[in-house]
Amino acid sequence: MSASSGRHRYNDVGALHYGREGVSQVKVSGGAADESGESGDVAASSSLPFLLEEAVSLTFADHRFHLTTPGLYRFWDWGEVEEIDGGIAPRASEAAPVGGFDSVVLHGGDLHAVLVALSVLQVHSARHNDCDDEDLLERARRGNIAVTCGRMADFGCRLLGRLGYATRSIRLWRVEGDYNSYDNEHHVFEVRWPDAASDPAGWVLVDLDLGRLFVAGTAAVDGAAPDNLAGMAELNRCVVAGEPFRAVPLSPISTRIDTSGAVEGRSPEYEMFAHTFADEDRLHEWYRRVFAVPAIQEDSGWVTAVEGADAERILRYDQSRGETFTRTVLSRDEWSSRYYGDE
To answer: What span, in angstroms and rounded, lies between the C-alpha atoms of 211 and 227?
Structure first.
């Protein structure tokens, strides 16, 4: 077809990168994207593991990509597109990419970028809660994983373990206000951060479900980029003492809620979550309440920092829920010394 007709066809292939600096489109030009200029065979993205340790060149849909910046890379191939006089010929808006879809995460020694990647991959929902880790990895390559906070925390801990990071599971309960059926608890985890953190043991609290890290004290007040990220003990101390803390988003799109239950008239609680989590002030208040009673998981059960009437209430809550796990109750000072003393 002649160029003068204003019509031409091309393959709609592209990639997005999600990392510390936000979201960026990986430039595609002609038959290659960010060509490395290297000679020899380059592995197809589908032949590589989901977690990549080092920078790599790969091909997707006959285009070459050179991955150097840590984070999540998502590739798509919508197949052939026809452009007519500067516009795109219509196609089914709900169609899946005809040539495929793939995702990989580049570690590159950057823990923060990996946390961004994992938070972007998740949508808060129970749809995939029963999937094992390998199934979730396959789903992550093709799209998003739809799991709740506990499943995401467990999944994140095990993936970070594959990369050599120490993690531990943390469960949170609120004791303020009336209990309900949907937000009395939350699951997060801590990871031992390389080099520095705000507590001597180097533990940093991570909420992958809502895509947040945390800072406390001066860093929470001045709004500057945090140099020291906070662990659970420091955040619990801030809540009890009425001191400031701040939740720091991992990505602009970290917090996504599946509200299809409300749309279908089955379950409104995720719609209520969306209302809370869409506003930073409401989210901060929600964190303030659930940070009141933290527990760290041991083989024997959950070891909890709670005192006085709050301890009595949380034990009554366990009984009302029919919980079968063992809960060990410590004072906040005992709990902090046990898990955050000099190591």
So the answer is: 18
Q: Which residues pair with 74 in a beta bridge?
A: 16, 103
| pLDDT value at 150 more than 90 | yes
Q: Does 287 score more than 70 pLDDT? A: yes
Q: Categorize the per-residue pLDDT at 3 as very low, low, confident or very high, splitting at 50, 70 and 90.
A: very low
Quick one: which of 18, 43, 57, 22 has its CA closest to 144?
A: 18
Q: pTM, whole model, 2 decimals?
A: 0.85
Of the candidates 155, 158, 150, 157, which has an alpha carbon nearest to the alpha carbon of residue 140?
A: 155
How crowded is the C-beta side of 146, counted as CA atoms within 13 Å?
A: 10
Highest mean pLDDT among 35-44, 191-200, 249-258: 249-258
| Residue 34 burial by Cβ neighbours in a 10 Å radius (0-12, 13-18, 19+) | middle
The pLDDT of residue 166 is above 70: yes
SS3 188: strand
User: Which two tokens mark 259?
Assistant: 């509200």
Q: Rounded to 5 degrees, what angle do the CA atoms 132, 137, 143 make?
A: 120
CB 79 within 8 A of CB 12: yes
Question: Alpha-carbon distance 101 to 15, whole Å?
Answer: 10
Q: Residue 326 to residues 83, 150, 190, 319: CA-CA distances in angstroms?
A: 64, 18, 21, 11
What per-residue confidence (pLDDT) applies to 197?
46
Cβ atoms of 64 and 58 within 8 Å: the answer is: yes
Look at residue 65 and tell me whether its pLDDT is greater than 80. yes
Buried b (16+ CB within 10 A) or exposed e, 104-120: bbbbbebbbbbbbbbbb
Identity (one letter) of the amino acid at 147? V
| Encoded amino acid at 229, one letter | L
